[in-house]
Amino acid sequence: LAGRSRNHHISLAAAAELTRRFREPSAKGPYAGAFLRDQVQELLAQPDCAWLRIYNGLETSGERTVLLVAADEAGKDLPAMVLGQWFPAGTLGEVAGELNATLTPVIAVTE
Fold it and tell me: What pLDDT is attached to residue 94?
């Protein structure tokens, strides 16, 4: 990963489409969540941190979750600190916006 460059910015419309597809009924929610800023900053402040890696996980309940871990310039995880136990969407107050037009799964109706 050393020496690579990428612009991670995408349009709001593209992001909204990605999150809409993710909310389809292939798995249980939550479909969004949050981590506390100070803990994310602590994760990024680790020596040798060059990247923030996001792992998808699945709780024993079947609900999706994500894990955050720092990685070095070579792309190797720095597992001294892993963030999990996120706040699922809605636990910090109402969630509204283009990226989560609905936080309930889209249910296909078959006739």
Answer: 58
C-alpha distance from residue 30 to each of 1, 47, 91, 100, 102 (Å): 31, 32, 10, 11, 11
Question: What is the residue-averaged pLDDT of the chain?
Answer: 74
In this prediction the pTM is: 0.67
**Number of other CB atoms surrounding residue 85 within 10 Å:** 9
- Give the C-alpha separation, 42 to 26, whole Å: 34
Return the pLDDT at 107: 39
How far is CA 45 from each of CA 1, 7, 49, 83, 107, rounded to the nearest angstrom? 19, 21, 7, 13, 42
Q: What share of the chain is helix, strand, coil (3-state, %, to 5)?
A: 20, 25, 55
What's the pLDDT at 32? 75
Neighbours of 30 (CB within 10 A): 19
Q: How far apart are CA 14 and CA 69, in angstroms?
A: 25
